[in-house]
Design goal:
Alpha-Beta Plaits, 7 helices, globular
Length: about 200
């Protein structure tokens, strides 16, 4: 099935969702989460990736990303291809109690597509949403950062280390991100601005 969302302007930041096929909870394992972090770190250093925000959940990841080269589709394709190959290799070679079941799910996923012959890790499509205003950027950053809070994993977003929330609150994190401009507080209704209480 074709993804109805398309990247039309390759130079603008986009909110991207990458989901594991069948919503398999691969990222409950630290080693697989670390693969995503390592790849993002490499892309920032070597592929002109500007990363504004991210979160790695149990079976999907959200990122807000921009390509400094104006080649966002290529950047995302390479990111997904590399991480899929690396994580499947780890599943096959490192201790994994669910190995047979996971690999079978990834094998079955290839039957409806011709692109992957052996195993498919990521679902096709990225559900890209163009970031067109600072307000929309922050609505997506809040959505990303509050994922672990909504899931009951942490009480405050900045406590979850596999996200960029701590970069915004504590100026530290697993990755060096490019911070979005801090939004202006609504002085007429300051109760609307509760971001850092939640973070």
């Amino acid at each position: 099935m074709q993804d109805g969302y398309k990247i039309r302007d390759q130079t603008l930041p986009h909110f991207i969702t990458a989901t594991v096929v069948d919503w398999v909870d691969v990222f409950t394992r630290k080693t697989y989460r670390d693969t995503i972090i390592e790849c993002l770190d490499y892309c920032i250093a070597n592929k002109a990736m500007h990363l504004y925000g991210y979160v790695i959940m149990s079976n999907h990841t959200h990122i807000i990303v921009q390509s400094g080269d104006g080649q966002l589709s290529d950047l995302l394709r390479d990111f997904k291809k590399f991480t899929a190959t690396k994580i499947i290799e780890k599943i096959k070679t490192e201790p994994e109690s669910r190995r047979e079941w996971i690999l079978e799910r990834f094998k079955v996923a290839t039957e409806s597509h011709i692109r992957n012959k052996n195993h498919q890790f990521w679902k096709y499509g990225n559900h890209p949403e163009e970031i067109y205003t600072n307000k929309f950027m922050w609505s997506k950053l809040d959505y990303i950062h509050l994922n672990p809070v909504r899931a009951g994993i942490v009480e405050k977003a900045s406590q979850y280390i596999y996200s960029s929330a701590s970069n915004y609150v504590l100026d530290t994190g697993l990755l060096k991100i490019q911070k979005a401009d801090v939004p202006i507080v609504d002085t007429q209704n300051p109760n609307n601005f509760t971001r850092y209480n939640k973070y």
